Amino acid sequence: MSTMVYPREERLEKLTQDEIISSTKLVIQGLEALKSEHNSILQSLLETIQCLKKDEEASLVHEKSSLLRKSVEMIELGLGEAQVMMALSNHLNAVESEKQKLRAQVRRLCQENQWLRDELANTQHKVQKSEQSVAQLEEEKKHLEFMNQLKKYDDGATPEVSPHNDMHRDVSLSVRQLKRLRESK
Q1: CA angle 184, 169, 161 (to 5 degrees)
Q2: Each residue of 35-78: pLDDT tens digit?
Q3: Are 147 and 132 in contact (CB under 8 A)?
Q4: Is residue 78 a contact partner of residue 33, using CB atoms and an 8 Å limit?
Q5: Residue 77, domain extent
Q6: Which of 68, 75, 130, 163 could link 42 by a cystine bridge, Cβ 3.0 to 4.6 Å?
Q7: Residue 171 is assigned to a structural domain of this protein
Q8: Residue 177 included in any domain
């Protein structure tokens, strides 16, 4: 039995977004330099082609120039992809920033909502107390009106003896007792 041993795969390092962006910027600079170098070599090859009249040498230079063109195209593709990565990174940063703003706004709105709920509960409590006070005052008003009517009967009473007079006297006693009871409270 034979055992195959594979080369150990290196674990990929997790790079942060900032590290990726800085690496991409370095790659862009390198690709730009490489592109300009390739373009200058291509220009010199094209000038050489124009000067050469022999077919063998010209075909060799044509082959070199076509390889350089492909290389320049690949470099331009790499540059384009790097620029897309940079634009995507900028967009993601803007989205993250907007997301943070919205989260802060949601927190603020939740706090405001809670404050409004507290204010509503406080106001409802005050309204309830006011309604109770109004009901109590209405009852006191009715009682005072009743007492006022009894007082009118008390002040206008005649000393004549009649069955109504006895009842009037009883009511007057009751009113006096109520007054004393009220005053003692």
Answers
A1: 160
A2: 899 888 888 877 777 776 666 666 777 788 888 889 889 989 98
A3: no
A4: no
A5: 17-153
A6: 68
A7: no
A8: no
